[in-house]
Write a structure and sequence with these properties.
Blueprint (H helix, E strand, L loop, with lengths): L1 E4 L5 E5 L6 H19 L3 E6 L4 E4 L1 H7 L3 H4 L13 H6 L9 E9 L5 E12 L5 E10 L1 H18 L5 E2 L4 E2 L1
Length: 174
């Protein structure tokens, strides 16, 4: 504050302005809290703008796909899902219906080149004004499950090759 003096020059006090910043402090804490939750969520969370550019990429995304957040920000998901035609997807982002939700199993690619399977859910996110502003993609790594299902199918297929049946009444193999 500013020091104030009486006419004769003696000190009278201070003049200042106070502003209550409690709400701003609470808002910053709330934002930090939410960021911590998103970063530590056990599924991949990727957010793109309406041009298809990645603007958020959490730690689990880094684990699943091998790319760091710094490598992915500003990129498109095409790097992660090279077998899909993402350019067609990017051009239609602004034409997606407001109630759009998409669920599917996709084959992605890790930075090191191996396949990863993810169960994805895609949802549109609206801003405060109610306008669609972002695309939220949550992906659960199901690679292990897909491998087990494949191995079970193959085991069943192989078991049928060269299989035989014993007729217990006639003691005859067919």
């Amino acid at each position: 504050g500013l020091p104030l003096f009486h006419k004769e020059g003696s000190f009278a006090g201070f003049m200042g302005v106070c502003m209550d910043v409690t709400d701003q402090h609470l808002s910053r804490n709330q934002i930090a809290f939410q960021a911590d939750i998103l970063q530590n969520f056990k599924d991949s969370i990727i957010v793109t703008d309406l041009e298809g550019k990645i603007i958020f990429y959490n730690r689990e995304s880094e684990k699943i796909f091998g790319y760091t957040s710094q490598e992915m920000l500003g990129q498109t998901p095409q790097i992660l899902y090279p077998v899909y035609n993402m350019s067609a997807f990017e051009h239609t982002l602004t034409d997606i219906p407001e109630n759009y939700n998409y669920n599917d199993i996709w084959k992605g690619k890790h930075k090191k080149g191996y396949e990863v399977w993810v169960d994805i859910t895609t949802t549109l996110v609206k801003n405060i004004q109610g306008q669609i502003s972002y695309v939220l993609v949550i992906a659960k790594n199901i690679t292990e499950r897909q491998i087990i299902e494949y191995l079970l199918e193959e085991t069943g297929r192989i078991a049928n090759i060269g299989g035989w049946e014993l007729n217990l009444e006639t003691n005859h193999l067919t």
